[in-house]
Write a structure and sequence with these properties.
Layout (H helix, E strand, L loop, with lengths): L9 H5 L8 H28 L10 E2 L1 H9 L3 H23 L4 E6 L2 E9 L2 E5 L8 H14 L3 E5 L5 H10 L3 E3 L3 H10 L9 E3 L4 H10 L4 E2 L7 E6 L5 H12 L6 E6 L2 H15 L5 H9 L2 E4 L3 H11 L3 E5 L3 H5 L7 E4 L5 H5 L26 E9 L3 H13 L3 H8 L4
Parallel strand pairs: 4-5, 4-7, 5-6, 7-8, 9-10, 9-12, 10-11, 12-13
Antiparallel strand pairs: 1-6, 2-3, 3-14
Helix pairs in contact: 2-7, 2-8, 3-6, 4-5, 4-6, 5-6, 7-8, 9-10, 9-11, 15-16
């Protein structure tokens, strides 16, 4: 058996659905949230210092002027690239926004009904720190909020690199909290250390960030509970093994717990891809991370394309790459995925780095019931009703209220009798 993406049964992969946040992470996150809720800003500062998240001389909270200074300090070419990527993300978000309209003047008995669409007031965005800066996460979370019309956008990230601050300036961020982990999520949600309490918290992070979001949900809205990243490549005999291997490696280098999967109708392709993985890892700087992820990944052999489509739907992956002869036809047969990449040219890495659609996507089979972050994440649909109730409406309302044993409801309706 190959060391990388070994052949496994579909049940072994599709059965890896996350059962929610692990208990250890939840307990640690709960303790951290309790500390900052009780101790306020001083406790937040202690945690930031404890985890070494604030470079020497950097304030805990950075203003738009601080962010603008970071943008101005970028080399001209780097700034132009960052702004070009941001423009693509913004253009796609603006196009999404045009599809969401208010509903006005729908006739109902006795009058009209409808709905309005309005953004939340304040959003907290999180961008992970770690080994490398992630300006892409800054752009992907803050720009859709800005397009949606959110009045105040805060960003949090530990030990931010200059390019992270520059990305925040380009995205229109109003304030930046230099903190990470569960305590950063808590500070954004509860209004501790600088940011006012936010209405919605979004953005990917480690298991403690995810646990904090789960614990705070209900006090604030969240985008999703994200787990390790996933890519399924659905491929047939027409796929190029070297390209498929490169796509799987790109996903695997995110995290040693990432899930790279090849679903294929061609056992020969599977063997060639497994060989390519070993060859391409040989000089990869991130092989220490990608290697374990590939060892934990899978190759699923299927009898035909219909079985391949069924396998992909059973997994419901975050990312789904279609390396097949007729990718457009296959796309229309698929039901469950976070984002689909149609054809050999549409590599998942383009989705990561700002071709337009968002890269914050559902993991752990949650694509079966949710979608990725978008302008919709920051919008509320609110209904309205303007009527003089008809006799029929009154009669029906009174009847149903009494069926449910709610006499007060029935009498409130009867007060409107004509």
């Amino acid at each position: 058996m190959s060391r990388y993406i070994p052949i496994r049964a579909l049940e072994d992969v599709a059965g890896r659905r996350r059962a929610g946040v692990d208990t250890e992470a939840a307990a640690i996150a709960a303790g951290i949230l309790a500390r900052i809720e009780t101790g306020g800003e001083s406790e937040l500062r202690s945690l930031v210092d404890e985890f070494g998240e604030r470079p020497d001389g950097m304030d805990l909270v950075l203003s738009p002027d601080d962010l603008a200074a970071g943008l101005a300090a970028l080399p001209t070419e780097d700034r132009a690239r960052l702004e070009r990527i941001a423009d693509r993300i913004r253009s796609f978000a603006e196009a999404q926004l045009t599809t969401i309209t208010e509903l006005d003047g729908v006739p109902v008995p006795g009058g009209l009904a409808g709905h309005t669409v309005a953004p939340v007031d304040r959003v907290g965005c999180y961008a992970p720190g770690g080994r490398y800066p992630l300006p892409s996460s800054v752009l992907m979370t803050a720009i859709p909020a800005d397009v949606a019309g959110v009045a105040e956008i805060w960003m949090a990230s530990p030990s931010p690199a200059p390019i992270t601050l520059a990305a925040a300036a380009v995205a229109g961020v109003d304030g930046f909290l230099v903190a990470g982990g569960a305590h950063a999520i808590g500070a954004l949600a509860l209004g501790i250390g600088g940011p006012p309490p936010c209405d919605v918290i979004v953005g990917p992070g480690n298991r403690y960030v995810t646990a904090a979001k789960q614990l705070l949900f209900g006090r604030v809205g969240i985008d999703m509970l994200a787990g390790p990243s996933e890519l399924v490549v659905l491929a047939d005999a027409t796929a190029e093994a070297a390209v498929v291997a490169a796509d799987l490696i790109a996903q695997a280098e995110h995290d040693s717990e990432a899930l790279p999967v090849l679903v294929t109708t061609d056992s020969g392709l599977a063997e060639r891809v497994q060989k390519q993985l070993a060859d391409q890892l040989a000089d990869l700087p991130t092989a220490a991370i990608a290697g374990p992820a590939l060892e934990g990944g899978a190759t699923i052999l299927v009898s035909d394309m219909a079985a391949g489509i069924a396998a992909c739907d059973a997994i419901a992956p975050e990312h789904l790459q279609l390396s097949v002869a007729d990718p457009d036809e296959v796309r229309h047969s698929l039901r469950h995925y976070g984002a689909v990449f149609v054809g050999a040219g549409a590599a998942e890495v383009f989705g990561d780095y700002g071709v337009g659609p968002n890269h914050v996507l559902p993991t752990g089979s949650t694509a079966r019931f949710s979608g990725g972050l978008s302008v919709l994440t920051f919008l509320r649909v609110r209904t309205w009703l303007d009527i003089e109730p008809s006799a029929e409406l009154l009669d029906d309302t009174v009847w149903l209220a009494r069926q449910e044993g709610l006499e007060g409801h029935a009498r409130a309706a009867e007060r409107r009798s004509v």
